[in-house]
Amino acid sequence: QVQLVESGGGSVQPGESLTLSCIGYGFTFRRFAMNWYRQVPGKERELVAYISSTGDLMNYQPSVKGRFTISRDNAQNAMYLQMNSLKPEDTAVYYCNRPPPPGSRVDDLWGQGTQVTVSA
Q1: Which helix H or strand E contains 113, and what residues bound it?
Q2: Are 45 and 37 in contact (CB under 8 A)?
Q3: What ranges make up the beta strands (E) of the chain?
Q4: Rounded-to-integer distance, Cα 120 and Cα 118, Å
Q5: CB of 56 closer than 8 Å to CB of 117
Q6: 3-class secondary-structure state, position 90
Q7: Which of 29, 40, 101, 113 is the most buried (most CB within 10 A)?
């Protein structure tokens, strides 16, 4: 079954760290660029970080640049988001995403989401 499974969310205090994981099943993980998104109730889902299929290129939303690090291990079909210096405004449900490659008919694939809560 083609799916993405996230883990690693939780509740932390401001300034602390968390690492999210995303495992891909049922497809050739190394062929796809991947994203992390997040969503707060009542707001649109927003892109947090992007990583290319080989892991050579990463991009970040300005609000997380310097605090979050996206990485991947294609041998393990895994992607990670290391989140440091967490702030209350980072509180959201975080989603792993496999976007369709340009010109392909591959589905846009999403994980189930993992909750991150940052509060004192």
Answers
A1: none
A2: yes
A3: 3-7, 10-12, 18-25, 34-39, 46-51, 58-60, 68-73, 78-83, 92-98, 109-110, 114-118
A4: 7
A5: no
A6: helix
A7: 29
